[in-house]
Amino acid sequence: MGQTIQISFLITHFNRPSDLALCIDAIKKIPISNYEIVVSDDGSTIENIERIQSYEIDQIVLAPFNQGLAANINKGLKACRGKYIIYCQEDFVLDVEINTVLPECFELLENKKVDMIRFTSNFYFKKIIPLTLTISRIPKFSFRNFLYNYYQYSDHPFITKKSFYVKYGYYQEETSGRYGETEYAIRILKSNAKIGITNQFMAFSIAGSQSVLANESNKKQNRKLINKSLLKIARAFRLYLECALYENSKRGLKTYKNFRKN
């Protein structure tokens, strides 16, 4: 009988093979063993698929056409054979020192102190609850985190157990990227899932990488000056409203547009 795989590194990819190569190279530099690399591709061009098939990957999961990030993560998750899943989009690289925090991640996940541990964040959570020297838990609600309470979950790199999705559900498919991420973030916020975060970031975005979400709305960017502080407050109240209106069974947002739906 073969050895059980401990970690599945799941990388979602869509037409960014150069970024993917950097992401894979960073994983291979981490001094660990007993892992697999799974790339879930979301309908990239034939040329890019042929290119990534030459990479050192354990599994490549292909889609018949572009189905969106949520569907891409879902099919990748179902292909993973590891007990733990480290998720990373292709435009991020993991820090080679991530191996120093993994034992604590495993222990906290096994002891159910947390259900998921993030390796980075775009936002600074003013209130966190220390669990170990290197990992803290984000409280479900804190007035100190008032503007960012709903950002406990993010599609940025994280580690969890495969069983997480059996308990809390997979991602809502047929959704545009930001809509799907926001819907799942609210779903997790309203659940009893406990989200942790490393005290020092262990994942970093690749400089110069162009986000595939930037153009999904087909709307021109408004370049007028906007008061960023007021925008953050308005966004926070909008998302608290979404939390209040959210229904687990129906899974949908009331004030956000899903650009994959007509």
TrEMBL record:
One Pfam family matching this protein: Glycos_transf_2
The Glycosyltransferase 2-like domain covers 8-136
Put simply, this protein is called Glycosyltransferase 2-like domain-containing protein
Q: Which organism is it from?
A: Flavobacterium palustre
